[in-house]
Amino acid sequence: MVTVIETVYRFLWGDLLTLPLPGGASIRFSLLVLLLIPTGIYFTLRTRFLSLRLFKDMVRVTLEKKDGETTALSACQTLIVSTATRVGMGNLVGVVAAISAGGAGAVFWMWVTALLGSTTAFIEATLAQLYKEEDPLYGGYRGGPAYYMHKFFEKKDKKKRWMPLSVLFALSGLICWCGISQVISNSVASAFKNAFHIPPLYSTIVLVILGAVIVLRKNATVKALDVMVPVMAGLYLLITVAVIVLNFQQIPSVFQRIFSEAFGLRQAVAGGIGAVIMNGVKRGLFSNEAGSGSAPCAAAAAVTDHPAKVGLAQALGVFIDTIVICSCTAFLMLLAPEQVTGSLEGMDLLQAAMGYHLGSFGIIFIAVILWLFSFSTFLGILYYARSNVSYLFGDSWAAQTAYKVLALIMLFVGGLTAYTVVWDLGDVGVGLMTIFNLIALYPMAGKALAALKDYEEKRRQGRI
Q1: Which of 30-39, 381-390, 417-426, 450-459 has the lowest mean pLDDT?
Q2: Architecture of domain 14-460
Q3: Distance of alpha carbon 350 from its chain centroid, rounded?
Q4: Transmembrane ranges (predicted)?
Q5: Do 333 and 240 touch, CB atoms closer than 8 A?
Q6: What is the rounded CA–CA span in Å between residue 270 and residue 257?
Q7: Sequence-separated (6 or more) residues with CB below 8 Å from residue 422
Q8: Sign of the alpha-carbon torsion through 245, 247, 251, 252
Q9: pLDDT, tens digit, for every residue of 302-332?
């Protein structure tokens, strides 16, 4: 089994294609990069650069108040749920790892990837709205890729309980989110051990108890995220922006470094331009999740007067995750002297940079914010799992509870022991989700594009 997982992981995320560049450099593409980047470019062109052209609309629809059913979510609430999973450990250590491997220029390519990914996020979220259905268990609505795949491929005169592609997507999602649960607790336990010398067992027990109290209650997950996500994102932005402002004199040189290394001759001559580009691209893809089919599981739950509004809100989520939060982490590191960060990597590098800016408080702050980011991710993925569990096992409280208990067990085990295969399992799950989702996105994109055209027409007429 381990061999199978590792083989699939290498196929999805390993170097599948190598493109030689002048000066002895090269760019290595994985299968997922080869799929997602062209998809982002294609949808960016089809939506006529939606992420730039309709940015004001993205903000406006996100801030609209919800009318109607109390059990349904607003576009803003579904954005909060998806942001909870996008904004995680990757926004901290992942950004630092990308810069460590690819240099400051990786930040530029991370931005480019986010702009492309936002249009993919719009397409899949709008489809989730178009094909959503009522949720008899939790109230409100549910949906996502498993549901819009099913309705698209099912023949009108032959109703079926399951469709193969939908089943594969739903299973991949459940596998992925179980793996992520273990990664989350392992990261939190390590951070608290380093910052506070708390044994992993104690921090893991507290994490599991808090998780159980929230996820085992009917509708406590969204309420908890409504409080947590704005607070954690607000705190992180407040501290990081304050550091950036205090070092404002260095900002022009940081931007110069980012752009010069993104296209610089020095990297090309040294054979490292491929690492610069691909580390930025991979970081952006891993962080914003656009195309993986995760966020549409939340987007389907929104109540709105037009499906394109939810798509625009989810496109904004990609911007918040990568352009804003990931960039703040990048600037924290790039504003610290190289003699401070040295050859450090991962959490040690980030804590060293934060320690330089804010002393011992910075080290503690990173540990606490990592806990908040990671815990909110756990709550978010359990919300995603609802619709997939329902698709596979029907409207059963027993099935919903069984998956939650399984995720809590993985959360506990992960805090005590790091199994590399489970990290790979999470990556395999999200990779397979992406492939199955993209198979449906291309033929179904016309529906989302028609919704966008209708939205813009009604917007011009002042009808919405």
Answers
A1: 417-426
A2: Up-down Bundle (1.20)
A3: 20
A4: 25-45, 92-112, 162-184, 196-216, 228-248, 315-336, 356-384, 405-422, 428-450
A5: no
A6: 16
A7: 179, 182, 183, 410, 414
A8: positive
A9: 888 899 999 999 999 888 888 888 888 888 8
β-pairing, 17-20 with 141-142?
unpaired
Cβ contacts of 360 within 8 Å, gap of 6 or more: none
Is the pLDDT at 285 greater than 70, yes or no?
no
Query: Which one-letter amino acid corresponds to residue 385?
Result: A
Secondary structure of the chain: what % helix, strand, coil (to 5)? 80, 5, 20
Contact, 295 vs 289, CB < 8 A? yes
Dmax (CA) for the chain in angstroms is 69
Cβ-Cβ contacts under 8 Å for 411 (sequence gap 6 or more): 181, 182, 184, 185, 204, 207, 208, 211, 378
CA distance 167 to 389: 10
Q: How far is CA 31 from each of CA 101, 288, 317, rounded to the nearest angstrom?
A: 20, 17, 25
User: Which residue matches tokens 């991949």?
Assistant: 172
β-pair type (26-29, 17-20): antiparallel
Short-list 89, 8, 94, CA closest to 281: 94
Residues 131-149: tens digit of each pLDDT:
999 999 888 899 999 999 9
Indicate the residue type of 361.
F
* Nearest-angstrom CA–CA distance, 249 and 244: 9
CB 339: neighbour CB atoms within 10 A?
A: 7
396-430 b/e (C-beta count within 10 Å ≥ 16 → b):
eeeebeebbeebbebbbbbbeebbeebbbbbbbbb
Beta strands in 189-290 (DSSP E): none
- Quote the Cα angle for 63-68-72, to 5°: 75
